[in-house]
Amino acid sequence: MNTGLIDGHTSQAYDAEMNEIVNDVLAMGEKVTDQVEQALRAFIQMDSELAKQVIEADKSINDMEVSIDDKCVQVLVKRQPAARDLRAVIAMIKTIKDLERIGDQAKRIARMAGNASSQIMAPKAFSEFEQMGLRVNQMLQGAMSAFRQMDADAALQVALLDKQIDNDYEGILRQNMTYMLEDPRNISRIVEMTWVGRAIERIGDHARNVCEHTIYFVKGRDVRHVDDEQLEAVVRNR
Amino acid sequence: MNMEASKNQSSSLPDSTDLAKKRDLMQQRVARSLKRRHAQEKRFKLIGMTAVGAALLFVVLLFTTILSKGLPAFWQAHISLEIYFDEEIIQIDDKPVRMDGESEAAFNDRMLAWRTQLGFINFNRLILEAISKEIPEAPEFQRDAMRLVTSGERFGLRKMVEEDPSIIGTTQRLWLLADANVDVWMKGNIDRDLPDSQQQLSARTRAWVDDLEAKGVLKNRFSTALFMNPDSRSSLASAGLAGAFMGSLMMMLIVMFLAVPIGVASAIYLEEFAPKNKITDFIEVNINNLAAVPSIVFGLLGAAVFILWFKLPLSAPIVGGLVLTLMTLPTVIIATRSTLKAIPPSIRSAALGIGASKVQSVFHHVLPLAIPGILTGSILGVAQALGEAAPLLLIGMTSFVASVPATPFDQSTALPVQIYLWQGNELRNFFEARTSAAIIVLLALMISLNAVAIWLRKHFETRW
Amino acid sequence: MEQPAMGAMQMTFDEKKESKPASGAIKMSARNVKVFYGDAEAIHGVNMDLYENEVVAFIGPSGCGKSTFLRCFNRMNDTIDIARVTGEILLDGRDIHDKKLDVVQLRAQVGMVFQKPNPFPKSIYENIAYGPRLHGLVDNKTDLDEIVETSLQRAGLWKEVKDRLDAPGTGLSGGQQQRLCIARAIAVSPEVILMDEPCSALDPIATSIIEELIDELKGSFTIAIVTHNMQQAARVSDKTAFFHLGDLVEINETREIFTNPQDSRTEDYITGRFG
User: Which residue is closest to A231 within chain C, CA to CA?
Assistant: First the structure.
């Protein structure tokens, strides 16, 4: 981790508090990444047992969010952070919100896996899915890695990946449409699959948000709701 | 694994007991040192209280000796005599009255002539006649009889006539001041068993005194002579402090009107306006040195400068006042400066920040706050000057002056000098008490000055 | 396509920076101001502009020269024998070191409030009345009464003291005393008010009252405030200047300084990373 950005306070206790929050966020990110990966696996392999585990584990993610939130509030109260520290705390509060949402999406996917009504779907259809899942997982890992490095450039690269996931989602939508026409028996399964695709697309959006928070922290510029060119401009500017 | 855990435990346990032991040891050490510290504290308190007690004891001792010696001097032996203002003896024209159209000079001339005539009259005869009424054999022993009344009283009678010629031909019962030796005899300040050769009064006079005292003709009464009369060498019983008091008063006024304004002004300039550089440092050092110069040196300076150079009169309050002013100046300057230093600088910034000039900030804000301190310093300085005798000795204020000075240029003595003079008087038995009485007057004056200082301080401080 | 997008983005950022209504003209400006204490240079050539109706906060570690620099604006450094100020300080375009401009006049225009509340040991009324009387601003008692009342009202003290104007100013609480000092400063209707750590001796409640007061006074005065309390600077000021070792390191919109300072020294200071 690029500790230089949040360390070095005159008060070592302040350093410790900040580091603790950062580590907690990283742990939460790891946990969320696992959840997404396992949920997708459960859905693809129709593993209702794994799905159950994922649903169960979501509670711990929610707990993590509450705990980190509380620690951030404590830092705000005790230290009245300014500048970089203030941005770090704000960014982390927002990041855990997004991570928690990602966790929710993973739970949603796992629920679909648990409810899986039939297995009629052709296995080949899942390959698209697997690829999209892989991509979103990579994106998520990349986002967390950029946060760990406090690296705006890396965050930018990861954020730009969101566009591909959006494209993937559109592709899957189109493909599912044809599947449904081909075999009406598959409709319910395909609708589920569409939902899952939608969830993955949402996860990508949240991962992009995480990257934006990292960029905000490092660059001091709010880059929400700007398009990719502007985002690039901000990161390259300084 | 288990072994290691237990080892860990066992190794951590002694650690904590070690700590407890160490703490116990520390506590014991602290307890031991406490005893020593308390003892130290007690010892110091004891020493302090002893010191204060000793100081108090000396003060009490001083005051009791002075008061016990001095207070009786305020009551002097008086003799009650029936004085007949005999027109046979007092043969004199009517007191001149200013006539219409008479010039001032002409009237004064006539008055002077009348006074001269009065001066030739022997008032002692009136006294002797009056004594004869009490002691029939008195006319035979005129010398002994006249020792009963102090010699100054004839001037008292003359003054009565001068003021009111109509008493001529009347008889008045008057309390006349008895001779100093009578006073000494009556108060038992001389050993009654001494042989005649060593007694101040003749055996006959002594017998008369005892006799008259028994009859109530001779009595100790409160006397104003000490306050109202100047010093005297012929009529010791009526010797008073009036001259010395006036001399001291004049000098004090001179000191107040010279030393205080000059001292305060220079202190304000040095403290508030003068640039801080080598010259002002030099001046400051010298002022401090001046405060430490022995006062007698100022007397030498005064004699050299004011008397030899400026040709001011010898033993005059003006010279004494100037010398004391020089002596008091450093005290006033130092007191004022330290008072000014103690005024918080925030007041100055406040005034300057609002647009007051330097002078305005000093005179509107700093000085009013400093006034109590300045007053106290000044009054203490003046009080110190009042008690100073040494420099006055060197400018001739030890000379005997039998009149009350009217102007600062007249000859005069001062209270502390008068004390010194009386202390050396030959008639020790009488003047020992008188010296102490003079000291009481001086002390009363100083205490009231200090009281004024304290009152002023309180008065100006309680305003805010 | 790209160009307009860039422009749009630039606009959004600029708008954020200037979201506050634009301030008035330059009231005072310092050009290459250096302050020497004896031979030691305490301020190394500072340039700064104070704008009308704007609060500028000076922050920085102890001994960084922020108070010294503040005191240049009303020549309070003149009162220190060994202090020497060079460079140009303009008030409405006039050099305040101009021989023709009397320092007394300058201080009537540029008032000052000090770190420790320092009311005169006189009555509340006299504290306020002193300045107007000194400068001959009033001819009669009625006018003076009015000035005293309005000054106290503007300082938010009128209600608390109107029944005891004859009571000593030193008998007020610390916060009231400081407001009394502010009232005293505005009684001579200055154009600029300099405040040297005005709240450092006050409790939080009194501090917040003063801060609110500063916000109100901003409408009529140009204010420069030295503070050690960075949150206070963040709360009350429009611009913040960071001083370090006698240099003006950075001056910018307060919101920028406290969220995204440009100089690493500023950042280290405001985030508590200073030795």
Answer: C9
